[in-house]
Amino acid sequence: MEKSVIFMQASVKMSAVLNCYEKEINNGKKVTIVLPYGLRNTKYFIDQLHLEADVITIDRLVGRMMILFPFVHKRRIKRIVDQFGINKNTLFFFTDVNDIEIGFLLPYLHNCSPTQILTSIDINDGIDYQADRKTSCIIWKIKSQLLSFLYNTHFIAVNDAGRRFIYTDIKAYNLPRHDYSDISIIHRYKLRVANGTNCVIFYTSPFLDKLYNIEEYEKINKEIIEKLHDKGYVVYIKSHPRYSDPEIVKLLADEFIPSYIPGEFIDLSSFCFAIGLFSTVLATSSEIIPTYSVIKVGKVKDVNMQESCIKYLSGINSNINFINSLEEIPNY
After folding, report:
1. Number of independent structural domains in the chain
2. Do 100 and 41 belong together in one domain?
3. Closest by alpha carbon to 290, among 309, 271, 264, 266?
4. How far apart are CA 99 and CA 10, in angstroms?
5. 326, 294 in Cβ contact below 8 A?
6. Are 201 and 238 in contact (CB under 8 A)?
7. Angle CA(9)–CA(11)–CA(15) in degrees, nearest 5?
8. Which of 187, 221, 256 is the last residue of a domain?
9. Helix 70-82 vs helix 138-151: angle between axes, to the nearest 10 degrees?
10. pLDDT tens digits for 69-90?
11. Angle 183-97-19 (CA atoms, 0-180°, nearest 5)?
12. pLDDT digits (tens, 9 = 90+) for 26-71
């Protein structure tokens, strides 16, 4: 039987994964959805959708072993690829190139016509996104070149949102890219999580040590919740699927939405507005309900990184309101 494997590397790409899944199922394919270790809990959400697909979670592909013991790591990668159940009639789809893991997998998948499936975020970024952000740091350049040599693949060292990363160099592969950005599919799979007329959804963001010190990060999260309470709202927390929240958030919040539910698949109709620091899902929520980013509130360590985050969020066809003070939050 013909088969399609879909590798979902970020929860924000769930709509593209579902669009691809439905197309492949309609074409009579057997579908396997692959989740990286960091998204292992997303399987709970997918299980609730009752899809006609196998869902598997793979181990981490990034760690010290990849440089210290490349031959051992290669065998590990091969074992992971074997889990996909690939045959001569298999097609392979993936969601992200701004990611190192797909670079480790591609040398084993060239017979599967690897194809990137695009969301509106990817279309906005464009094919030159990585090239425009190449780092000038010699150490990171050497690291990316060493990994490319050891694993017979193509990596690139970049500066992104004020930090250095190694991504898979998609231009070197010249792989097909298909548009799966239709967000209408979201409405068929949405989950209603809130009841009441004074509910607000707070999308928490992971701690970035280059943007905040830990005291300021905890302080701003605390002040957001307290201000929302002062203005008469019930606060629902939606955490990032890969990171935990500060203890103060856990103490002050009223309700918690399971972190494994992708933000786009939460029915926002029962929320007055959305708020957060710099979560990408703010761009999606801004198309549905009023949405506020408080990244301009509080003290930051790196103004350039702050501006980079604002520029990125502003560029995703979003209607986010970047407020300068918590007093700008409307009263209930």
Report:
1. 2
2. yes
3. 271
4. 10
5. yes
6. yes
7. 100
8. 187
9. 60
10. 999 999 999 999 999 999 889 9
11. 25
12. 999 999 999 998 888 899 999 989 999 999 999 988 888 888 899 9
Predicted confidence (pLDDT) at residue 121 exceeds the cutoff of 80: no
Across the range 176-189, mean pLDDT stands at: 89
pLDDT digits (tens, 9 = 90+) for 135-176: 778 888 899 999 999 999 999 888 876 678 888 888 888 889
Write out the residue range of the structural domain in which residue 283 sits.
190-328
Angle value at C-alpha 271, between 279 and 242, nearest 5 degrees: 30
Looking at the fold, whether 181 and 238 belong to one and the same domain comes out as no
The Cβ of residue 161 has, within 10 Å, a number of other Cβ atoms equal to 16
Please check whether residue 37 lies inside any domain of the structure: yes
Checking if the pLDDT of 204 tops 90, the result is no
Cα distance between residue 288 and residue 178, in whole Å: 25
d(CA 21, CA 317): 25
The vertex-196 CA angle with 194 and 199, nearest 5°, equals 65
Closest among 71, 125, 65, 73 to 99, alpha carbons compared:
125
Query: Which pLDDT belongs to residue 54?
Result: 95
Determine contact, residues 237/205, Cβ cutoff 8 Å. no
Q: What is the largest CA-CA distance in the chain?
A: 61
Choose the weakest-confidence range: 19-23, 241-245, 328-332.
241-245
